[in-house]
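Entry 14. Ran structure prediction on the chain below.
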Amino acid sequence: MKENTLNKILIVCCLLAIVSCKAKKQIVVTRPPAPVTKPKNDLEAKLNAIRSQQVSFNSFSAKAKTNLNIDGNTNDCTLNIRISNNKKIWVSVTALLGIEVARAVITPDSILVINRLQSVYLKKPFSFIYTYTNRHVNYTMLQALLVGNAIPTLLNDSTKYEAVNNTINLSGSLQDVLYKLALGADFKVTQTNLTNDSQGQSLQVSDNNFMVSGNQKVPSQIAIASVAKNRKVQVNLHYVKVDFNLPQDYPFNIPDDYSASN
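Output, structure tokens:
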């Protein structure tokens, strides 16, 4: 696999994603219940009902069989993803025979990638992902998409709410981006669409075949299609294992003999 193609694959794995270690003793902190506030209006009550059914977690871990198509180049791999809520997304990328070819860590500010096949590493600000996707994508959005949640900023008081049969449709605009969300009767997101025609950018995410882990309901299949001008990326994730709130580590060390990549 050529280096430029591999680096593209690694960046996409960083975006979407995101080996088990010895468990450590968990510390449970009891917090007082949040004060109950009355919704200001009917729309807020409906959006609160949707928010209440989104996945809530401290940590998330998953194994996903993944197909990547980047500008027509297709590759299959396995992603081991770990998420520390609102802090970091850790991804280990394995190819045939379970050999790790890359490891990545995404934070709200940065992207770090180790390319083991080429013995190089990449250190970039989070904004580097805008080469491959919509400029409105941020860490919170990536995390929400990986666990099947609604993007929080789209649940706002200017959203148009429409219920048709067993489907709830939300739509509106956020700055120069038009968005549409489809949710089932259980308030779980089944489709997310973001479009910025002036910039030639779009992002479509479909969630299918939901599974239950503990008391959390998540999609077992996530299909992502991103267009950023002349770049097209398609990612199909199939979660084969999902766990919540297990103790986990996020190991990431750059070997001394690795060189920096552009």
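The mean pLDDT is 86. Will compare against last week's run tomorrow.
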